[in-house]
Records
---
Amino acid sequence: MYHLLFLIYIVCHSFNPLTLKLPLCLCSLCSRFLQYRDPFAQRRHPLVDPVVVSEIRKCLEEGIEFQGELLNFRKDGTPLVNRLRLSPIHNDDGIVTHILGIQIFSEANIDIDRLSYPVFKQTSCHHPNEVNTDSFYYLQAPNSHGHPCRHICGILQLSDEVLSQNILARLSPRDVASVGLVCRRLRQLTKNEHLWKMVCQNAWGREATGILESIPVTKRLGWGRLARELTTLEAAAWKKLTVGGAVEPSRCNFSACAAGNRLVLFGGEGVNMQPMDDTFVLDLDSANPEWRRVKVSSTPPGRWGHTLSCLNGSWLVVFGGCGSQGLLNDVFVLDLDAQQPAWKEVLGIAPPLPRSWHSSCTVDGSKLVVSGGCTDAGVLLSDTFLLDLTVDKPMWREIPTSWTPPSRLGHTLSVYDGKKILMFGGLAKSGPLRLRSNEAYTIDIEEEEPRWRQHSGTGFPSVGSQSAIAPPPRLDHVAVSLPCGRSIIFGGSVAGLHSASQLFLLDPREEKPTWRMLNVPGQQPKFAWGHSTCVVGGTRVLVLGGNTGEEWILNELHELSLVSKPEMDPEMMTSNH
Ligand SMILES: *[C@@H]1O[C@H](CO)[C@@H](O)[C@H](O)[C@H]1NC(C)=O
Ligand SMILES: *[C@@H]1O[C@H](CO)[C@@H](O)[C@H](O)[C@H]1NC(C)=O
């Protein structure tokens, strides 16, 4: 037996408060309460009591409570008993705006093909203050002993607050926000930080909310506002900032990532193609952030065209790239917070081919994923490898082997929903040619046999619809994973007259994902490269470097802030005065 709480949100404008006539959609909704054995059935199953159905309709129309039992069917057609309670919720003017529903399902012990109708108990309509114990007599209050029957259902004894918080916590951030607009009572019930944190946690997963919890922005804005701003991106803005210190000697083709509120940079190509092996950190928490060289007691061989990713907390991982002896396929990890930080090599069994300009990401705080890149012979790769760094004798695993997207370099991997990866763009092999790509692929590495799938509708821009235009093909671009599972793409090397700084948004979880363009105010960077961009705390994207001819200026940063900053916050400003 299991319980299902739900809230029917009346969105129909046709609801007439004077006649209390329910809109058609609600009647069809209540007649959808499971009287059809399968979606294609044209009639109700003969065992469904038509009296119950008309009782529901009557109670809904009169704005009074309904309690009763219904025959219901699973997707596969097996019968279930559905004990249903529907209570109307009135707004400040006494108009029914919502209906609170409690469903309790249990197995129906009947042979659906043999029994003849009717098999279900009487139902009744109640005025709110009466509690009919009969309708729920199979349920026992948690603290009652002995008699299995004639106890009031435990759920019915809970307060409005507890019930509504439990129901609301299961809705999406958007729905909770809508419910809060209905009346003062519901607004009050949705103004609860704990509730909003649960809503965010359900929608975005524990890992994403854990990261958000650790950043000061969340405290300042509160979970409700944060959820709104990350959903609508209404407060997103670009800003330019300058930092102190120096990354010397100057270099290009390094790799950078964020560890907590710190930016970390490793390696790169110095003058005369010298492979660099030093590590720099920029602490954004300090009052005057400055680049500082990290004193490490041991370091990986110098390289460029490698990947640096944050594994978990203060742990970083480097893979591959081009060193003085050619291409590499080694793995090194560093704990920035160790007393004496040192890069340590992880010797994985059966490593993938040495490569550069590949793409990497980390999953679960423990696994490194490496995909594509370019070999010594200049051949593009299409493989995907995974290495669990937390096990004793780490072993590389190739995923998947059946079908892979065309081989490529300079693409991005971004993680969403915890274990799923979105691959986008790069320089891809297309017959005898190598072309910039704007294809998107996804994979769920938790599946038993993970496989790449191409996203339909993302290959070619569709004509006529502005909002459905895919980003122009590109490589070495920036891909940002939002806590809510969507991805933002911008920057990189784009052909022709297209602007690289235009932002594009994609939700890979949609059934038919479509690209949307995002217009963001503020001073945007002229260019942004994937290997020199960091995402901090899930809400700030930092683009490193201006470029004057040959040199990279790493004291110039552009920040894309996805939530409102204190100085732009009108509510904060008024409270300060
Ligand atoms: C970085 O590496 C790429 C690819 O090897 C190369 O084409 C480029 O000239 C290098 N330097 C800069 C400044 O991008
Ligand atoms: C992070 O990863 C490293 C390397 O695998 C591991 O030793 C460490 O325990 C992990 N830390 C956390 C907090 O998970």
---
Amino acid sequence: MNRLVLALAVVILSGAACRATNAADAQAATVDSNNYVHGDFGPPRGDPIHAVLTNPPNVPAPTFRNYPAKVIVELEVIEKEMPISEGVTYTFWTFGGTVPGKFIRVRQGDTVELHLKNNPNNKMPHNIDLHGVTGPGGGAASTFTAPGHESQFTFKALNQGIYVYHCATAPVGMHIANGMYGLILIEPPEGLPPVDHEYYVMQGDFYTTGKYREKGLQPFDMEKAIDEKPTYVLFNGAEGSLTGDKALTAKTGQTVRIFVGNGGPNLVSSFHIIGEIFDRVQQEGGTHPQENVQTTLIPSGGAAIVQFHTEVPGSYVLVDHSIFRAFNKGALAILRVDGPENKTIYSGKEVDSVYLGDRSEPNLAAVTHATKAATAGNLTKDDQIKAGQQLFTGTCSVCHQVNGEGLPGVFPPLAKSRIIAADPKRPIQILLHGLTGKVVVNGKDYNSVMPPMSQLNDDEMANIITFVLNSWGNPGGRITTEEVAKARAEPAPAAAAGH
Ligand SMILES: [Cu+2]
């Protein structure tokens, strides 16, 4: 193509782009030799606008603008201790006090003046790299900011889409692992189609020196991070941040759009909603949607826009379908849909505790209380029973049932179990090593497999067994953490492995 023809094509195509975006405003969109509209609709117009930023899971309202503006975005980095799981805290580094950071929403063609403040109480320098920026480092070099300082830089939002932003200060992996990421939406000029709900969910992997759910303030573990072995994989920075009272909500017959990001630093997300099909997915945040998707991959440092319509009331579970992450590392959130049943589409019965265990109930306060009491040296039997009851619900009730009656022929009863009465310490061995082969409980034969419950720590086992001993007509008594620890240190007795 010679230069003249190219110039002509530019004129014609930019005209087309104007009509496509907004006819009322004559906008100059530039076009390169591949005919890509770059989204430079000319200089900003009107008074500068202060962007309204939102905390997760909320999304700012659409810009409802048909002209390019100057938008001022003010972000403050705050380092602070927050819960990461029940009774567990972590020192997060945040953009605006939450993980993920504040949601930023602008329009393609806007000129964004970004101010980054580093709170004077912080200990580390920080910066910001926005994937929606065209320019070296995405803003990182221009925004390196020491505690108590502020930097600013300006960029034009040339490409529409949903983009991750993150801190890129060395050690970069550590800043991201501590929660320094968020999303910026660059709306197409005509805006996104209206929906009933827009939500902001972002996955991240976390590395603590203690084990999953080990109580207290947990420091960052660099070795685990390098080995890519996270202790937690979470939506919105904490286990339970989107369950129970904090679940996302919708009504039947509504359209829901979720901006789903993945901050990483390491893992790729297999994002799925149990019981829903995405009608539309903008994979990797790109422009052309895929339709009728079950699970969408979200790269570390990437994002997607998923959209679906709700038909049937109930609890829908957002998971990373690398499923151990959901049930053993925390990557689980709930969307609660209210409204009338629709039996022609689904016959009924809730996603229940058998599926979710204690994960649908963020309230494990009795467990936290028992841990604190144990540390302080004043743990009572009653504390143990209450903590044990919550843990039993999440761990044992799926087989032995909430009332301890078991299921005939499949799972033996723990209620009035003569096996337990004969030796109240025997359950320690059963939990540590599992139980297989024929066993007679209260005159009935069972020949099945109980897997070891070795994911439970010593405290948890002691509390569960104490709860069992004091429930459903069992003989009472108490098992201590020390007894469990001692048994764990010993080799498995042959008797516990089978009969
Ligand atoms: Cu940082």
